[in-house]
Amino acid sequence: MSTPTVTTGRRPVHLSKGALVVPAILAGLGLFLLYGTLTMEVVGDGGLFGPTTMPWIVVVLCFVVAALLTFDILRPRPEYDAVPAATTATVPAGTTTDTTLDDGATGGPSATVTDSTDTDTDTDPGTDPGTDPGTGEAGADAPAPEGVNVPAVLTAVGGVVGFIIVLPFLGWILSATGLFTAVAAALGNRKWLPIVLAGLAVASAVQVVFSAMLGISLPAGFVGGL
Amino acid sequence: MEQLTNLLGGFADILSPSALLFVFLGALLGTAVGVLPGLGSAMAVALLLPLTFVLEPTSALIMFTGIYFGGLFGDSIAGFLMNTPGNSTAIASTFEGHRMALRGKAAQALATGAIGAFIGGMVASTLVVFFAPTLASLATGFGPAEFFALAVFAFIAISAVVADSAIRGIAALAIGLSLALIGIDQPSGTPRFSFGASQLLDGVSIVVITVSLLALGEVFAQAAKYGRAEDTRAVMPKGRWWLSKAEIRQAMPAWLRGTAIGVPFGVIPAGGAEVPTFLAYGTERRLDRRRAQPMFGKGAIQGVAAPEAAGNATAGTAMGALLALGLPTSATAAILLAAFQQYGLQPGPLLLERSGDIVWALLAGFFLAMIVLLILNLPFAPLWAQLLRVPKSYLYASIAVFAAFGVYAAGASTVDLVIMLILGVLGLAMRLYDIPVAPVLIAVILGPLAEYSLRDAMTNSDNDPAVLVSSPITIVLYVLLVAGLVWTAWRRFAEKRAADV
């Protein structure tokens, strides 16, 4: 269900500029599929509904959804853009709330291509008196309480990258201990000795239960050679 | 009463110590992941998918269904005690549940929830036992056009009807469909999107996709959120964990109404228990307004009873839809479908015929799981609450290790691990920007079915698109789909209006 919308004067994360990552991913996928479909060496007689049919459908879907999502993220939203973050509390709610709900009802997330132009003209008057795009951007770029902890994410991702690199050499137990340590550190735990011991315990438990008892093979690394 | 004989046969199969052990393990794990915020039954089953390489089908599948139901028993604990529902399915019951806890009735709130989940699950399982064979025999006549309609129905329902934003749901669907295309095209043998890499010829394993998106994505998302202010004060349950006669009298009608609301939603691919739990909550609230002393807002027992019953009733009939039609209606059901496929079993009309013994043992397992879950949850709720004290750093570090293990066990290949990393980062991006994950899983699992049945239907009819809507079943499915879309649009509109007033 939808969370209650609070008029904070700041766009929620999924409508911020950063959210454009998602349409970018979709466009990237579309290009990947487009290239793959064009270069596909079809075995036998493809026919009208051959191995390339579904890829074409998905290619179109990716590009269309990317475009619609970009529009959904960038389109003016009086409820967030019209009110600069700093003055939220002092702005009388009356008129702003009205345009907010009007816009929400006609051009909500389920708006389709056909009524997109309609929505555009509808919302324009709402944004004009309030603000120019500049303040809207400032609101979106200001450090939000729901900001991303970049160092923590990089530590966790780095832990996985490291795990993938060292797994063939160090074997499961040591690599997994490293991964455990990296993720725990990313989540703010700095008590190194307990973390490493816990990681060692979890990695060994997985090794014992799944590998020794259930027979799923794991790389031993040099530890296995000892 | 053939069903009863079959069910008794199923009970005979699973009343062995080893099968009971798996029922118990599943219930235990399910409750645990339900209790812990951020984890869920979908992630737990995904992480345990590698067990399908070594366990017997019945043992693994019984454990997984135990996790599915257990997740819905446990999810209310964190919600009631800390006001942070562990899963979206517990949001509706948390409103009144947490208020009950604040009034010192935490134990009774938890008991109301657990008994509600039990009633909902039992009723739904009974209905599944009696109607699954009928549904399956109805579906044996399904041809390519019907399967295509079913897949399209699932796609649109899960992405447009369930997700808060239709365009974001469809974005997730597109990602899933793209992933499903990688690998050899079965009918023609054409390698697709593998670009010469032999590791990609078999496609991206469903284990890799589910584990990466659900588990690793959540680990990264937790890292991204680290440092934000969090309110982690929990109200600990004290006192009697049973309900007084007066409380039962109040809760009983709500349990039954919740069950009635939840049952139909399991068969509709509405993405699990979220919609019915909110409908059940809304119904109770409207009824409460007519009472002499309205209790909503002060910790109404009905506000806990109905959504909890609805949640598990949905899960029960969702299993029925999965077994009889091969139609996954929630993320966890989708992963369960993947678990069946690991064993070369295809849920759907033919499953009951070909592997009836497994199905009946599984259905018998539902009933046992409910009983075990009720026992685990009623008196031991305070113990489960202690799980909330596990530090997040240890919890998510362990999940990362299990995820890495699951992916490596799936294929022992470094390529899979690299894909895991990419999809994990994708999972993070999706969580940050409100793109739902469930449509990806449904698309990955039903994508091939949709594609191959479309091509079959077209080849059989000399490319006449009319074949897609030529049978009554296809027409009914498309009509239902349109009705669902209209209802969703109306509901969103009504919500906006309600927020207005």
The gist of it:
The complex is a heterodimer of chains A (226) and B (501). Chain A has nine helices and no strands. With 226 residues, chain A is mainly α.
Describe what you observe in this structure.
- The complex is a heterodimer of chains A (226) and B (501).
- Helix content of chain A is 64%, strand content 0%.
- Chain A has helices at residues 21-38, 53-74, 78-81, 93-107, 116-127, 133-141, 150-186, 192-213, 221-225.
- The model of chain A is unreliable at 1-8 and 85-145 (pLDDT under 50).
- Chain B has a two-stranded antiparallel ribbon.
- In chain B, a hairpin with a 6-residue loop joins β1 and β2 (191-192).
- Chains A and B meet through α1, α2, α4, α7 and α8 of A and α7, β2, α8, α10 and α16 of B.
Number of strands of chain A: 0
Strand content of chain A: under 5%
Count up the helices of chain B. 19
Please outline the major beta sheet of chain B: 2 strands, antiparallel
Number of strands of chain B: 2
- Main sheet summary of chain A: none
**Which value, in Å, is the CA radius of gyration of chain A?**
26 Å
Global structural class of chain A:
mainly alpha
H/E topology pattern of chain A: HHHHHHHHH
- The general outline of chain B is globular
N- and C-termini, Cα separation of chain B: 53 Å
Give the chain pair forming the largest contact, with residue counts: A-B, 87 and 91 residues
Total number of helices of chain A = 9
Organism (chain B): Pseudonocardia nematodicida
Domain DUF112 (chain B): 20-441
InterPro entries (chain B): DUF112_TM
Transmembrane segments (chain B): 20-49, 61-81, 109-132, 138-158, 165-184, 204-224, 321-340, 360-381, 393-411, 438-454, 466-487
Features:
A: mainly alpha; 9 helices; B: 501 residues; mainly alpha; 19 helices
Write the layout of secondary structure elements.
The complex is a heterodimer of chains A (226) and B (501).
Chain A: H1 21-38, H2 53-74, H3 78-81, H4 93-107, H5 116-127, H6 133-141, H7 150-186, H8 192-213, H9 221-225
Helix pairs in contact in A: 1-2, 4-5, 7-8
Chain B: H1 2-14, H2 17-35, H3 41-48, H4 57-82, H5 91-139, H6 144-162, H7 166-181, E1 183-184, E2 191-192, H8 206-225, H9 245-267, H10 274-289, H11 301-325, H12 331-342, H13 349-354, H14 356-377, H15 381-386, H16 392-411, H17 414-432, H18 438-460, H19 472-500
Antiparallel strand pairs in B: 1-2
Helix pairs in contact in B: 1-14, 2-4, 2-14, 3-4, 3-8, 3-12, 4-5, 4-11, 4-12, 4-14, 5-9, 5-11, 5-14, 6-7, 6-18, 6-19, 7-18, 8-16, 8-17, 9-10, 9-11, 10-11, 12-18, 16-17
